[in-house]
Amino acid sequence: MKNSSIEKNNKSSRLLSLDAFRGFTMFLLIAEFTGLFYFLVDPQFKGTIINFIGNQLHHHTWNGLHFWDLVQPYFMFIVGVAIPFSEKNRLKKGSSERMVVKHAFTRSALMLILGWGLYCIDAGKITFLFQNVLSQLAVTYLIAFLLRNKSISLQFVLSILFIALSELIYRTFSIEGFNLPFTPDQNFGAYIDLLISGQLSEGHWVSFNAIPTIAHTIWGVIIGKIILSNKSKKEILKIMIIGGIVGLIIGYSFDSFTPIIKRISTSSFIFVSGGWSLLTFALFYWIIDMKGYRRWAKFAVIVGINPLFIYLFAHVGGGSFITRIIKPFTFGLFGWIGELSANIITSIITWYFLWYITYWLYKRKIYIKI
Question: Which one, out of 278, 297, 311, 347, has a CA that is 20 to 30 A from the CA of 19?
Answer without folding.
Answer: 347
